[in-house]
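Run log // design_07
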């Protein structure tokens, strides 16, 4: 089953996406609107996951979509980790 893995992963991605440090840095480098679009998309996806969980066992197409969503969530998590690392690196160098 893919859904139980996706829901917690999306929650982690959402937490990273909404961190104040990341939001401040995103505004400074001009990508705040893109992060806001990603946040809204994640909220819509999370709202659909509950329905998908009930139909997952019987629907091959849904299983494929959920597997692709899981891959995309891991990619988003990786990208946000890189972005957060750069924020911390910049803060470290600015404070030296």
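design_07 sequence
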């Amino acid at each position: 089953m893919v859904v139980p893995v996706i829901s917690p992963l999306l929650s982690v991605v959402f937490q990273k996406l909404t961190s104040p440090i990341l939001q401040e840095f995103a505004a400074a480098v001009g990508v705040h609107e893109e992060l806001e679009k990603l946040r809204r998309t994640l909220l819509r996806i999370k709202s659909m996951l509950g329905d998908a969980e009930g139909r997952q066992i019987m629907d091959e197409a849904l299983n494929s979509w959920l597997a692709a969503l899981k891959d995309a969530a891991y990619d988003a998590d990786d990208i946000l980790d890189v972005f957060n690392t750069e924020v911390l690196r910049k803060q470290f160098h600015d404070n030296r």
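The chain has a mean pLDDT of 82.
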